[in-house]
Automatic annotation (TrEMBL):
The active site is at residue 98. A motif (Histidine triad motif) lies at residues 96-100. Gene3D superfamilies: HIT-like (3.30.428.10). It comes from Aeromicrobium endophyticum. InterPro entries: Histidine_triad_HIT, HIT-like, HIT-like_sf. PROSITE patterns: HIT_2 (PS51084). This is Histidine triad nucleotide-binding protein. One of its GO terms (molecular function) is catalytic activity. Residues 5-112 form the HIT domain.
């Protein structure tokens, strides 16, 4: 998608602090972190949200989930929160599926 910020990051056209890349994912640090560790994991394939990604490519959705765990562990966390916002009302601002890996502090429930 030519106007998608995350597609531009995947393509290397927009800089980001890349944490990891795989055949299916790109992970980078959030520019507005909400925890000491806040990494976004996105699929290379454009899909507007996590459920759409799972319908379009279950393999890419599984790869994204596996990579979120690998990143949390690599960052030194066996406890972490994984967040998928779906739709504007839930706080989604970039309509390219992405998971937020949050860790490094106590995370209360319910979230705000």
């Amino acid at each position: 998608m030519p106007d998608c910020l995350f597609c531009k990051i995947v393509a290397g056209d927009v800089p980001a602090e890349i944490v990891s890349t795989t055949d299916h994912t790109v992970a980078f640090r959030d520019i507005n972190p909400q925890a000491p560790t806040h990494v976004l994991v996105i699929p290379r394939l454009h899909a507007p949200d996590a459920a759409s990604l799972a319908l379009a490519s279950p393999e890419a959705a599984v790869a994204l989930l596996v990579e979120t765990r690998r990143i949390a562990m690599a960052e030194g966390h066996d406890s972490y929160r994984l967040v998928f916002n779906t739709g504007e009302g839930a706080g989604q601002t970039v309509f390219h599926a992405h998971g937020h890996v949050l860790a490094g502090r106590d995370l209360t429930w319910p979230p705000g």
